[in-house]
């Protein structure tokens, strides 16, 4: 997640540089009366404005490629959780201990408590121990869904007939909210994900 954030800042900086440079060039074109009756070619400038964007793209492509492989790394997970997308709720299975299975439904607006987030809270949260590598196995039972938690840098499709894998960890306690991000039907907006990151001791007691 941190690396994703750094990459975002990096590419945004390049974007700003390009925008300022091109903006400056266009402004000077608008505000002068230069003309050159005999100008037919300019080899040097064409080499510059071909090679410069190519090099710039490499500076974006290489860190991006590195990030793909970092995100695929699994790093000896301590806990494995299986997440199954349904129309329209998530269900979870913890099979490292005795088999724990539960469904996780959004809390409807008319049943909300004052402390609940509208369309974002669920009845059964996904509990994880913090500072622990988690392996998430993601699949779906009906149509394609997507298990997405922006704050943890996790986004992976839940596809029927396939078992996708994603690895993550949380470095603090807290609640992490996410939503399905694959258009999966009428109630696509109403299948949120809530991760409850707690101390490993509390997790083992649970
Ligand atoms: Cu499940 Cu959108």
TrEMBL record:
It is found in: Mitochondrion inner membrane. Component of the cytochrome c oxidase, the last enzyme in the mitochondrial electron transport chain which drives oxidative phosphorylation. The respiratory chain contains 3 multisubunit complexes succinate dehydrogenase (complex II, CII), ubiquinol-cytochrome c oxidoreductase (cytochrome b-c1 complex, complex III, CIII) and cytochrome c oxidase (complex IV, CIV), that cooperate to transfer electrons derived from NADH and succinate to molecular oxygen, creating an electrochemical gradient over the inner membrane that drives transmembrane transport and the ATP synthase. The chain crosses the membrane at residues 12-32, 44-69. Residues 76-206 form the Cytochrome oxidase subunit II copper A binding domain. This is Cytochrome c oxidase subunit 2. It is a multi-pass membrane protein. Its cofactor is Cu cation. Binds a copper A center. Component of the cytochrome c oxidase (complex IV, CIV), a multisubunit enzyme composed of a catalytic core of 3 subunits and several supernumerary subunits. The complex exists as a monomer or a dimer and forms supercomplexes (SCs) in the inner mitochondrial membrane with ubiquinol-cytochrome c oxidoreductase (cytochrome b-c1 complex, complex III, CIII). PANTHER family: CYTOCHROME C OXIDASE SUBUNIT 2, CYTOCHROME C OXIDASE, SUBUNIT II. CDD domains: CcO_II_C. InterPro entries: CcO_II, CcO_II-like_C, CcO_II_C, Copper_CuA, Cupredoxin, Cyt_c_oxidase_su2, Cyt_c_oxidase_su2_TM_dom, Cyt_c_oxidase_su2_TM_sf. GO terms for cellular component: mitochondrial inner membrane. Keywords: Copper, Electron transport, Magnesium, Membrane, Metal-binding, Mitochondrion, Mitochondrion inner membrane, Respiratory chain, Translocase, Transmembrane, Transmembrane helix, Transport. The gene is COII. Belongs to the cytochrome c oxidase subunit 2 family. GO terms for molecular function: copper ion binding; cytochrome-c oxidase activity; oxidoreductase activity. The keyword Transport applies. Its main location: mitochondrion. It catalyses: 4 Fe(II)-[cytochrome c] + O2 + 8 H(+)(in) = 4 Fe(III)-[cytochrome c] + 2 H2O + 4 H(+)(out). Residues 1-75 form the Cytochrome oxidase subunit II transmembrane region profile domain. GO terms for biological process: ATP synthesis coupled electron transport. It comes from the Eukaryota.
């Amino acid at each position: 997640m941190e690396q994703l954030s750094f990459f975002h800042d990096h590419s945004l900086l390049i974007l700003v540089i390009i925008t300022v440079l091109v903006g400056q060039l266009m402004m000077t074109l608008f505000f002068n009366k230069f003309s050159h009756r005999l100008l037919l070619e300019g080899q040097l400038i064409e080499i510059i404005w071909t090679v410069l964007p190519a090099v710039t793209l490499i500076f974006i492509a290489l860190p991006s490629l590195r990030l793909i492989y970092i995100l695929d790394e699994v790093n000896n997970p301590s806990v494995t959780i299986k997440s199954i997308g349904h129309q329209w709720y998530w269900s979870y299975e913890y099979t490292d201990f005795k088999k724990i299975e539960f469904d996780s439904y959004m809390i409807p607006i008319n049943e909300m408590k004052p402390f609940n987030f509208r369309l974002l809270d669920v009845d059964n949260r996904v509990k994880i121990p913090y500072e622990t590598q988690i392996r998430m196995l993601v699949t779906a039972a009906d149509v394609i869904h997507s298990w997405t938690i922006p704050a943890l840098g996790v986004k992976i499709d839940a596809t029927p007939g396939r078992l996708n894998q994603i690895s993550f960890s949380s470095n603090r306690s807290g609640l992490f909210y996410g939503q399905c991000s694959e258009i999966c039907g009428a109630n696509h907006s109403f299948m949120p994900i809530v991760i409850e990151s707690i101390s490993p001791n509390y997790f083992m007691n649970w």
